[in-house]
Design goal:
By secondary structure, the chain is an alpha/beta fold. The protein is built from seven helices and eleven strands. Helix 2 crosses helix 3 and helix 5 crosses helix 7. The termini are far apart.
């Protein structure tokens, strides 16, 4: 089963510990440092739309983009009734084509790692560059190679009264891919439904990502530790990267 196909309806319940507002607050700290006040934004690989909705709450016109129709269905349902609901579209990042340019593009929760072909990752960054208005900014985070290597052999369990999820990590040094085999049990009335998904993440180095950004035309590139305004420390598990397109807005 494709990643996030069965998981979509239970994703928010299994990730209720994720502080999306802290992530968006970090974006806005970077924007303030850059002297930017964006009016439009794209939340790339938006999943169930949590980041997109917070960006919209802050007054931005938001487009949410994801490859999973199932995740987008949940995102649209969550945003029903929002005063300024994001507009959601189904696209892959390497074929990204927005109906208008945006001032800000973000990609949260290691979604770039899910692009497991480096050429596709470089292509996605090129498409993101084209989608930004002149002077626009791109901010994203990735799991570091150190974190993905440490996942090898690890077993994790998430559950509540209606969902039970166990997943196992395996890291392949040759392919640089960490695979997560996920067994998911979801309550359906008096019965439980079992499904299996495999999630794959590629271990990109910061130098590779910076290289892709430069090749696409980005400038003012900076690498941060995990929601910290300092460079990553040795062994950092997650890093953030911001880059600018051309002249200032």
């Amino acid at each position: 089963m494709a990643a996030y196909e069965a998981l979509a309806v239970s994703y928010d319940r299994l990730t209720n510990d994720v502080d999306y507002r802290a992530v968006v607050d970090f974006y806005f700290e970077i924007l303030e440092q850059e002297g930017l006040r964006p009016r439009t934004a794209a939340d790339l690989a938006c999943g169930t739309g949590s980041v997109a909705r917070i960006l919209a709450e802050k007054g931005l016109q938001v487009i949410g983009v994801d490859l999973s129709e199932e995740m987008l269905t949940v995102a649209r349902q969550k945003a029903e009734g929002d005063e300024h609901a994001p507009w959601f579209i189904c696209q892959s990042l390497q074929r990204l084509h927005l109906y208008r340019g945006v001032d800000l593009a973000v990609c949260a929760l290691d979604s770039m790692n899910y692009i497991t072909n480096p050429q596709d990752c470089a292509r996605a960054i090129q498409r993101i560059y084209r989608a930004l208005n002149p002077g626009g900014i791109f901010i994203f985070d990735v799991n570091t190679p150190e974190k993905l290597r440490a996942m090898d052999g690890q077993v994790f369990l998430d559950e509540d009264e209606d969902v039970y999820c166990v997943w196992r990590g395996e890291f392949d040094e040759e392919t640089r891919i960490c695979s997560y085999g996920m067994d998911l049990f979801q309550r359906r009335g008096a019965l439980w439904e079992r499904s299996f998904e495999e999630h794959l993440e590629y271990a990109y180095s910061r130098d590779e990502l910076v290289g892709y950004l430069k090749d696409a035309g980005f400038t003012s590139i900076r690498v941060y530790g995990d929601r910290k305004h300092q460079p990553p420390e040795a062994g950092e598990q997650r890093i953030y990267i911001k880059a600018r397109k051309g002249k200032r807005l």
